[in-house]
Amino acid sequence: MEPCRHRCVACFKMFNRRQHLVEHMKISHHSLHQPRCGVCFKHCKSFESVREHLNVPDHLFKGDCKSIFSERGCTLCLRIFEDATALADHKNKCHLSAPLPLVTPTRTLGVNTRLKAVAIDCEMVGGGDDGSTDLCASICLVDEDEHVIFSTHVQPQLPVTDYRHTLTGLTEEDLKNGMRLQDVREKVLAILCGGHNDGAGRLLLVGHDLRHDMKCLKLQYPSHLLRDTAKYVPLMKTNLVSQSLKYLTRSYLGYKIQCGKHEPYEDCVAAMRLYKRMRDQEHGKAEEEEEGDGLNSWKQSDLEKMKPEELYHNSTSEYRCWCLDRR
Radius of gyration of the chain from Cα atoms? Predict the structure, then answer.
């Protein structure tokens, strides 16, 4: 008689002992928020893991995920559609075009302007003897509709020893009439605080690897209001290392950026589009689930009495899914 095996209903791993399944569920944090295959619904840590799964030959996975995805799957969002016609209609919306080059700011914030999220990007030049000290030289903020709400060059606080012209396109002349860093920081905070002077953040701050932007601005902001496309688990590599914004834009939005010099506006728009694509995902009832410790709040003895489906039902994500921002 073969021993009873216990199967994870999320990633399909098999375990000889129930307690091993419980330990797996506690460290995996499986939930409806996790990226998953649109064919077999296998849960993965990141969308990159889903891509790898969909490239596994069907005879190795004992399924038909690869063949179905190749016929009816979107290579950007990884969704599966009923037929080729539905897929073609979807691709026209999913595949985006690069934004037009920025000419002048297009939006002025009024007292009653309602914003929920803004994206930020800074370009840095180099200071210090070897040019390795990052100095903020330009900044751009855009809203969810990709309208520029703030854009300016910044006067470096230290002498510039490397303008990094190949990447930034900036020269000494560009920065000569830039805003003072202190004035820039106050302007950014005023936007993020909704025009109030109390220093309390009210808007979500979107960006890619935000710690660099915040460091060069000498800006502190509540972590629960940060939406960082470099640190969001579903957008990371299979080993949970950050992807570049250039890679994410090409793989999830369908167009190229940073082909020459880096444009803050272009990077802002890419980060905002990535955020909105993740935010607008449909996770069903998961969008209303309560935050908590999930399986770690249960006694081990009670967990070992649960069926695999019950373990999954009581499991919660290890990160806050951006779909919850729609509430």
Answer: 23
| DSSP of 252-306 | IIS----SSS--HHHHHHHHHHHHHHHHT---GGGGGPPPS-GGGGS-HHHHTTS
Instruction: Give dist(CA 137, CA 125) in Å, integer.
Output: 6
* Structural domains of the chain in order of their starting residue, each with its CATH number: 6-95+283-326 (no CATH), 117-280 (3.30.420.10)
pLDDT, tens only, 141-200: 999 999 999 999 999 889 999 999 888 888 888 898 899 999 999 999 999 987 666 667
The C-alpha atoms of residue 198 and residue 190 are separated, in whole angstroms, by: 9
Distance from C-alpha of 286 to C-alpha of 319, rounded to nearest angstrom:
13
The alpha-helical segments, DSSP class H, found in 73-132 are 84-94
Does pTM surpass 0.85? yes
